[in-house]
Amino acid sequence: MPAVAMEQIVSLSKRRGFFFPGSEIYGGLQGTYDYGPLGVELKNNIINDWWRTNVYERDDMEGLDAAILMNRLVWKYSGHEETFNDPLVDCRSCKSRWRADHIDGVCPNCGSRDLTEPRPFNMMFSTQVGPVADSGALAYLRPETAQGIFVNFANVLATTSRKLPFGIAQVGKAFRNEINPRNFLFRVREFEQMEIEYFVMPGSDEAWHQQWLEARLAWWAGIGVPRERITIYDVPGDELAHYSKRTYDLMYDYPNIGVQEIEGIANRTDYDLGSHSKDQASLNLTARVKLNEDSTARLQYYDPESRRHVVPYVIEPSAGVGRCALAVLCEAYAEELTKAPPPEKLQSVADGLTAFLKSVSRSDKLRPEHRDAILARGEAIAGALTERLPELEPLLALPGADAIELSKKLRGQAQPVLDEHYRTVLRLRPRLAPVKVAVFPLKRNHEQIVATARQIRRHLQGELGLRTVYDDTGAIGKLYRRQDEIGTPFCITVDFDTLGEGKDATLAGTVTVRDRDSMAQDRVPIAELEAYLREKLR
Ligand code: GAP
């Protein structure tokens, strides 16, 4: 079962070093997160997988890495200066500011309905280029990577001799001054996008739009977010971005946050290439574009078959790396039984839960909606306690639960059972796992065991390029748990048998390889480790 509460992911992330709030020691900077040692590996693995699928495994794609800072005119003609706005309202009672379409007419801070009329707030961060702060120095941090692709269309075409249809892929940072950044990595002010601009002959755009929809769903399934967990939202006309003829938003149901966009797949028509072109009147554009008096190029394509110039249409699949990492973690997260607890231990937790729920139902400290939510969740857990015991912690984190005296007692009863009989495991696709292999010496002070274990680690990481950690800081069972929790697919133990000093002399030169998902152990010759791991990590 995937994560049931975002709190599970936030807590794991903090405990193990996936993501940290940005600038934390100075009180943070809202809407920013830093990727820790495991987060950066996960992020790089996601990006590499996306790049491999979309650039290397196709023969119609090129890559690009454009500058974040661009001439201000890019944002004038792209339409962002005029239209990249969110509706901002002020609460007259508590002076807080909100995005009008997120709050339903009520201030989430103080409950007041005394709000100002919505007014447009441009989300681009502005900055100054060079030492003189006059109007000519104004620049923006890009709010999407896409424009870097459009303004390089002619460069890529000229240097690669591509024929339509073809695409350009780019991964990079984007910045948006979100009015209310929230929900962990979900809505932040600095984030990374993986974007494709796929250029097609006008008229073939709708068919390509469908093809990209299928291709992108297949990619998501391949990284562990299956088709049935994604809803396709065919964005209605009045919600479409200014450049779009049609957009499919891929929506994922994040715990606590709800159903939200993880990727947009837009048909941008000839809007962008047309917007950035000179002599627009001669281009037969279908999109309505702003008159461009500054561009020095006609962003068009010579079609050798029809012997005419056309401005290609564009299909754009655009996904956020942070939202992807979050969805992948939610899907991979599991807290599961490893060995059944004795009935008397389980009974004491069951009794504690019954007493807690009784206290909740009688409490006058709780808001009715909080009480109902705790009771509904609590009764579901009580109905299948053995399997659902790990959901107790998220239950106790629901609003109002800690106001109930018995919550501490219940936590105290459940924790030892959880520690001994359950494990947290991230069932990440092996190629996405931050650490591929962990190597343990059975004895941390045994010179030869340590030397062999270190040698294996050096070989796997240094020569095979597999992120590998060496850990000798606990008993093997504890070390397994630690690796399960971060999704490490394989743990290797070097022991006396490896050295030929165990009971079975035929095991000399072999190590134990333990599989994260099945917890099964294989004995593998060191000489065959490379082939064994390569096969399983594919
Ligand atoms: N070039 C098209 C474009 O930027 P978008 O729907 O605004 O389209 C694409 O953004 C993707 O970027 C979204 O599906 C989401 O995954 C990610 N994204 C957008 N705003 C974000 C934010 N504030 N925080 C995190 N990710 C964001």
Overview of the structural elements:
This protein is of the alpha+beta class and 538 residues long. It is built from 17 helices and 24 strands. It has a seven-stranded mixed sheet. Helix 2 crosses helix 9 (321-332) and helix 10 packs antiparallel against helix 11 (368-383). It binds glycyl-adenosine-5'-phosphate.
Q: Percent range for helical residues?
A: 25-40%
Structural class: alpha+beta
Q: Please give the oligomerization state of what you see.
A: single chain
Q: Overall 3D geometry?
A: globular
User: Taking Cα atoms only, what radius of gyration do you get, to the nearest Å?
Assistant: 27 Å
Topology:
Blueprint lengths: L5 H11 L2 E3 L11 E3 L1 H20 L4 E3 L5 E2 L1 H6 L2 H4 L1 E6 L6 E3 L19 E4 L3 E3 L9 E4 L4 H5 L2 H8 L5 E10 L14 E11 L4 H18 L7 E5 L11 E9 L3 E12 L1 H5 L25 E3 L4 E3 L2 E8 H12 E5 L5 H20 L5 H16 L1 H4 L3 H5 L9 H16 E5 L10 E5 L5 H17 L4 E3 L5 H11 L3 E5 L15 E6 L5 E5 L3 H9 L1
Parallel strand pairs: 3-10, 20-21, 20-22
Antiparallel strand pairs: 1-2, 4-9, 5-6, 5-7, 8-9, 10-11, 11-17, 12-13, 13-14, 14-17, 15-16, 18-19, 22-23, 23-24
Bound molecules: glycyl-adenosine-5'-phosphate (GAP).
Glycyl-adenosine-5'-phosphate (GAP) binds next to strand 11, strand 14, strand 17 and helix 9.
